[in-house]
Specification:
The protein is of the alpha+beta class. It folds into two domains: 6-46, Arc Repressor Mutant, subunit A; 62-137, Alpha-Beta Plaits, CATH 3.30.70. It is 35% helix and 20% strand. It has helices spanning 6-17, 23-30, 34-46, 79-87, 113-123, and strands at 66-74, 92-97, 104-110, 130-137. Strands 2-3-1-4 form a four-stranded antiparallel β-sheet. Strand 2 (92-97) and strand 3 (104-110) form a beta hairpin. The longest helix has 13 residues, at 34-46. The protein is elongated and about 55 Å long.
Length: 152
């Protein structure tokens, strides 16, 4: 299938910034023939390097103004059911099993501190097997686009 090269990395870098970029515009930005760009994108999709083309939603404009991360200690015998229940909560964006101080890290968005409080105390806190939670409210975020580099 071929190795990932500098052209592939340039394509990925531009599409991460704007997945809606047309092939002709992308080819001009990276100074590569449009037919080459098109075939490279198809190859990246086939190799499952590009998983999908998506959008970034401004969640604050939809009223989701509170972002929090919740550290969760669990009864490991109930791991699967806990992961399933957490994943089914609409406010939960992501659940990660981690090493360190907590067993799980849960990322959430809420419309208010009251909604966050209700989520933590009435929903998450009452899931069978959750032993302890600690909530970290995001004060400010400094976001950064991912940088993809070729292996040395």
């Amino acid at each position: 299938m071929g190795k990932i090269d500098e052209i592939d990395m340039k394509i990925l870098a531009e599409l991460v910034k704007n997945a809606n970029l047309s092939v002709p515009k992308l080819s001009k930005k990276i100074n590569v023939n449009p037919s080459v760009v098109y075939s490279r994108i198809k190859r990246l999709i086939k190799r499952d390097i590009i998983k999908n083309f998506t959008i970034a939603v401004n969640e604050e404009s939809l009223g989701y103004i509170v972002t929090a991360v919740i550290g969760v200690d669990i009864d490991s015998k109930l791991r699967d059911s806990i992961l399933n229940e957490l994943s089914n909560l609409p406010e939960v964006k992501e659940v990660s099993e981690v090493t360190g101080r907590f067993d799980l890290i849960v990322s959430i968005r809420a419309k208010s501190l009251d909604e966050l409080h209700n989520l933590v105390s009435e929903k998450i806190g009452k899931i069978n097997g959750i032993l302890h939670t600690e909530t970290f409210i995001e004060m400010r975020k400094v976001a950064k686009e991912p940088i993809y580099r070729l292996s040395q």
